[in-house]
Amino acid sequence: MRRVRVGMIGALALAAAGFALPAAAQRAEPLPKQLEGVGITEHPGARVPLDLEFVAEDGRPVKLSQYISGKKPVILTLNYFRCPMLCTLLLNGMVDGLKELSWTPGKEFEIVTVSFDPLETPKLAMLKKESYITEFGRPAAAAGWHFLTGKEANIKALTGAVGFGYRYDEERQQYAHAAGIFLLTPDGRVARVLYGVVFESRTLKLGLTEAGEGKVGSTTDQALLFCYHYDANAGRYVVAASNLMRLGGAATALVVGVWLVGAWRRGAHPRTRIRPETHVSGR
What phi-psi label fits residue 124: left (phi over 0), alpha (psi between -120 and 50 degrees) or beta? Predict the structure, then answer.
């Protein structure tokens, strides 16, 4: 398990809740009481409880297994729909990154957005979905992006499984929470957490390809994972220098090998030079 840094995520959560971030907090000193328990503790490989029941935006009772069915990777976002700032920034940033991909929710992957406010209703979830499908500009995405609400016990079970910590501030009547999205394998295990509110299209594509475990992405996409690795500090996939060096070494060895084989063949089968016949004419 890895505890997310307080710096960026804590600052965003504080901003969302209307707090000022003291300089001491940036020096890893104890968090303000309002932020105790807020953050993301990574649980790599942790499995989401697929039997948890929620309510879809159209009012139907559903289980997570209906969307995390073993066929496609899943982007899981944990938000609340009346959030005044941070949730909107996160979802906007995700949509901006997804717009640059040719992939569409419902085809190559699924998106499950779950409200962690047990008082929110399916009607509110439907309004939020309609807004983001319109913003996304691809009506077909409605089949693959699901907005869910649920009971507190099930919300706690889900957030606890993936390590998402949040806290309700009674005074401001808002939630303090971190900013990040969870990439899940087709069978519902946590493959990667992407932090922040800006998500580059390449990061999303490589992350989904990695989480898809070979079920999504072209051969080229799969090959790119050999050349790139996820840098948690940078928040994106960066060039894996060691892998590129190995790849370059292998390519060089292959070229040299081909040249040597060609040289050997030329040496083993020397060309016979045919001399022109010399005719000596008589006198």
Answer: alpha
